[in-house]
Amino acid sequence: MNRKGFFITGTDTGIGKTFVGAGIAGALKQQGLDVGVFKPMLSGEKREDPMSDTSILKAFSGDANSLEQITPFQFAEPLAPYVAAKREGRLITLEKLVQAWEKIQHTHDFFIIEGAGGLAVPFGREYSAAHVAKAIGMPLLLVARVGLGTVNHIWLTIAYAKQLGIEIAGIILNGLDDKNQGVAEQTNPEFIEELTGIPVLAVLPWIASFHAKDVAELLNKSLPLKSLLDYKCGEGWKGA
């Protein structure tokens, strides 16, 4: 049986998945939850780098699992995981990846799992981040930009997820600049909900700090964390 949690994906690389995922993990940790993290593939940086996605997820969550358990596969070049692995003469199958997940899935009550890049990014010869999400069986939280162009990216990502039968719990818009807020930023949250039928759970402001305490406090204020804990695949939001 799958553990509770969410698979964090984005509409692009550099969209703020780690910021959001680590922030949620840190906020839940502050509330006393036993939360773990898993980012199966990392490209272009070393797990041991304090500013790597893996290290940030581990630090924010307080996960006692090793960096190697949290990210079992890493590659030197900043490329799509499949391309980076191929250039190193390696082939990581979906089965190997799922086996790595199964070794740690019972170590925590709740998991935040992060993909790499967008949902259609190739992780292996015949599978993408989406296939990983489906195999693990947790609903998606989709992280996207706030401004002009984001509707197209969100719509395409959702269409791909639905094509594979992956449940999408909600959308988080990230990086709002209050000083440069245009019509797109003002209208997109409501329009995205109307267009997709999927709730926009939060519109997060751009912040300069990446300290665990600051990010966790922002997520505590901005997201319905209690509802995240109550969410169940196939049932949706409690009370909705």
Automatic annotation (TrEMBL):
Signal peptide: none annotated. One of its GO terms (molecular function) is magnesium ion binding. It is found in: Cytoplasm. ATP binds at residues 14-19, 53, 114-117, 205-207. Mg(2+) binds at residues 18, 53, 114. GO terms for biological process: biotin biosynthetic process. The keyword Transmembrane does not apply. One of its GO terms (cellular component) is cytosol. Its main location: cytoplasm. It is an enzyme of class 6 (ligase). InterPro entries: DTB_synth_BioD (IPR004472), P-loop_NTPase (IPR027417). Its EC number is 6.3.3.3. Pathway: Cofactor biosynthesis; biotin biosynthesis; biotin from 7,8-diaminononanoate: step 1/2. Keywords: ATP-binding, Biotin biosynthesis, Cytoplasm, Ligase, Magnesium, Metal-binding, Nucleotide-binding. Homodimer. Catalyzes a mechanistically unusual reaction, the ATP-dependent insertion of CO2 between the N7 and N8 nitrogen atoms of 7,8-diaminopelargonic acid (DAPA, also called 7,8-diammoniononanoate) to form a ureido ring. Belongs to the dethiobiotin synthetase family. This is ATP-dependent dethiobiotin synthetase BioD. It comes from Virgibacillus massiliensis.
